[in-house]
Write a structure and sequence with these properties.
The protein is α/β, with parallel strands linked by helices. The chain has 6 helices and 8 strands; from the N terminus they run αββββαβββαβααα. The chain has helices spanning 2-39, 109-115, 174-181, 218-228, 231-248, 268-273; strands at 45-46, 64-71, 76-83, 86-97, 119-128, 146-154, 168-169, 189-197. α1 runs antiparallel to α4. The longest helix has 38 residues, at 2-39. It is elongated, with a radius of gyration of 34 Å.
Length: 274
């Protein structure tokens, strides 16, 4: 009985811990989904107004901002990126901030001074893989001159430790991107929504998909694990009930066997009298 109870306790503890793990994953997804729903369609704010919130927390991901600058003559391609199920590359170009219109789409010299000399990595979109892996895709060039961009801020991605040719990245690692483009970058990158130059709207790679706000099955899994935690005790109770029922059934001796006599219970006062 004690062994069965110990196994039931261990089983319950494991189920509770697994439930807490799934609940944590649900909470993480909920934070990201809340950030997306509150920021993705919000009115854009000047980039200079949110510089103090870098690096981004999970609650600040997908802040929608606008700023002005000039694209640097450098371009990076991020491999193994997907759009609508097709493999391709994402196109990154640094934007040198602090343009003549204030660096925030026309908000004045104060904001332009805050951004002067800084660079923001812009993800201009996605292009399909070329026919041969060794070839590079044809990419619409970034516009020359001053450009006003609008999009969403995202934190950099971890370094995947892959050695790729110059001009290519395995992830949007801001440290590697800064090294390859020859200058420091803000501690976030911009997923491009729109860009506008003096010549109008320039051609660009395909826009990226909207972020996923699905919370997944983690909340349901957490409840399932917590409900499962009592099964060990239920099974133990069932086994105890069977054992008690078996003990209550009278034993009928086979033909020719002596009838077992009932053992008299020895009470403590009987021992004292003896």
């Amino acid at each position: 009985m004690l062994g069965g109870f110990a196994i039931a306790v261990v089983f319950a503890v494991v189920c509770v811990l697994l439930g807490r793990w799934q609940w944590g994953r649900y909470e993480d997804r909920q934070v990201r989904a809340t950030a997306v729903t509150s920021h993705y369609t919000a009115a854009p704010v000047p980039l200079a107004d949110v510089l103090g919130r870098l690096p981004l927390t999970e609650a600040d991901e997908w802040l929608r901002v606008t700023t002005t600058g000039r694209y640097a003559p450098a371009q990076l391609l991020v491999r193994n990126r997907f759009l609508d199920g097709s493999g391709g590359l994402e196109v990154l170009v640094p934007l040198e901030l602090g343009g003549g219109s204030g660096g925030t789409g026309g908000t004045g010299s104060r904001s332009g001074g805050a951004l002067s000399g800084k660079r923001l990595l812009v993800d201009r979109g996605w292009v399909a893989n070329p026919d041969a892996a060794a070839d590079l895709p044809s990419v619409p060039a970034a516009p020359n001159g001053e450009v006003t961009v609008q999009g969403w801020l995202r934190p950099g991605e971890p370094d995947l430790g892959k050695d790729l040719p110059a001009g290519q990245l395995a992830s949007i690692d801001l440290g590697q991107a800064a090294t390859q483009t020859g200058g420091s970058l803000l501690d976030a990158y911009l997923v491009l929504d729109t860009e506008q130059s003096a010549a109008g709207v320039p051609p660009r790679p395909a826009p990226l998909e909207q972020p996923d706000t699905d919370l997944g099955p983690h909340q349901a899994y957490a409840f399932q694990w917590w409900l499962t935690s009592v099964f060990g005790f239920v099974f133990l109770g069932y086994r105890i009930r069977l054992a008690v029922a078996d003990a209550a059934v009278p034993v009928t001796p086979a033909e020719g066997e002596p009838v077992p006599s009932r053992v008299k219970k020895v009470r403590i006062w009987d021992q004292e009298d003896a």
